[in-house]
Amino acid sequence: MGLTQGSSCELPITQTKLAEATGLTLVHLNRMLQELRAANLVVLKSKTLTIPNLEALMSAALFNPAYLHLNQAGEVPDTAAAVPLPALDERSDGLQL
User: Fold this and answer.
1) Per-residue pLDDT tens for 43-92?
2) Alpha-carbon distance 9 to 43, whole Å?
3) Domain harbouring 48, CATH code
4) What are the backbone angles phi and psi of residue 26, rounded to the nearest 5°?
């Protein structure tokens, strides 16, 4: 909706509020952000979030774009059940969640 500039967007939220919103402890959220930063998956600077490589972040997060099982019209396609999800032991990036 026009809120991004390339691979960046404003993220005017504190780690405390982000932890509350995600149900994580502040300590755990901070550790996860440190791991994401160390892997160059996210850059947080001056209330701006930058995702240098979206595909790498999606892979690290085990994101499956079919998880909502919706097509362009917002309907459930017949093939949604056939989409394989990666196994948890298939991570190759070394991150631990």
Assistant:
1) 999 999 999 999 999 999 998 887 777 666 556 556 545 555 555 454 55
2) 11
3) 1.10.10.10
4) -60, -40
d(CA 36, CA 57): 9
CA 50, distance to chain mean position in Å, is 12
Residue with the two structure tokens 């093939």: 79
3-state SS string for the chain: CCCEECCEEECCCCHHHHHHHHCCCHHHHHHHHHHHHHCCCCEEECCEEECCCHHHHHHHCCCCCCCCCCCCCCCCCCCHHHCCCCCHHHCCCCCCC
pTM greater than 0.70 (yes/no): no
Q: Report the C-alpha gap between 49 and 2 in whole angstroms.
A: 15
From first CA to last CA, the distance across the chain in angstroms is 30
Structural domain of 10: 4-76
**Tokens describing residue 55:** 């595909």
